[in-house]
Design a protein that fits this description.
- By secondary structure, the protein is α/β, with parallel strands linked by helices.
- The protein has one domain: P-loop containing nucleotide triphosphate hydrolases (Rossmann fold), CATH 3.40.50.
- The chain is built from seven helices and seven strands, in the order βαβαββαβαβααβα.
- The protein has a five-stranded parallel sheet, sandwiched between helices. Strands 3-4 form a two-stranded antiparallel ribbon.
- α5 packs across α6.
- The chain is globular.
- Keywords: Kinase, Transferase.
- This is Adenylate kinase.
- GO terms for molecular function: kinase activity.
């Protein structure tokens, strides 16, 4: 386990698990949203493909994302391990709602110095709406990829409950 993708729906805990695994294995952790959003107004990184390509050319890394469409195959082709947080909506939605509420109320800066706002809650791109809308599709995409012969060399660990992921983490 040296080139690791942590995948799952929004709010599953990908970043939290990726940071913890990175610390335990001394593998450099990279937050995909921080690579993707680079400035005010949720500006998208125009050099994302080049940066992710350079980063994943290295021997050891952990990234907390299935990957945006433009880097998805690159990530999956270069990874050796997938940690899949396959949690139900009943698990992820309270997490997303608590996180977004905290970020909105505290004005906590997130990627590229942006902040979640009260007005943002009414956008279909808000994390809560996004998590609800993309949950089933994300699960199908990950399931398809883990069964794809192109990615058969990947070791996949699928966790359907947070307790199972925590148990596995303790064994590292």
């Amino acid at each position: 386990m040296e080139r690791i993708l942590v995948v799952g729906s929004t709010g599953a805990g990908k970043s939290t698990l990726a940071r913890a695994v990175g610390r335990r294995l001394d593998v450099p952790y990279h937050e995909m949203d921080a690579l993707y959003y680079t400035g005010p107004g949720w500006a998208v990184n125009g050099k994302l493909v080049e940066e992710v390509s350079a980063l994943t050319a290295g021997p050891r890394w952990i990234i907390d994302s299935i990957g945006s469409a433009d880097v998805r195959d690159l990530l999956w082709e270069r990874a050796d391990t997938v940690l899949w947080l396959d949690y139900s909506r009943r698990v992820v939605m309270p997490r997303v709602l608590r996180r977004s509420l905290r970020r909105t109320l505290t004005r906590e800066p997130v990627f590229g110095g942006n902040r979640e706002t009260l007005a943002g809650w009414f956008s279909h791109e808000h994390p809560a709406w996004w998590a609800w809308a993309q949950h089933a599709g994300r699960r199908q995409e990950i399931e398809r990829r883990t069964g794809d012969p192109r990615f058969s060399p990947l070791r996949t660990h699928r966790f359907t409950r947070p307790a199972r992921a925590a148990e596995w983490l303790r064994t590292l």
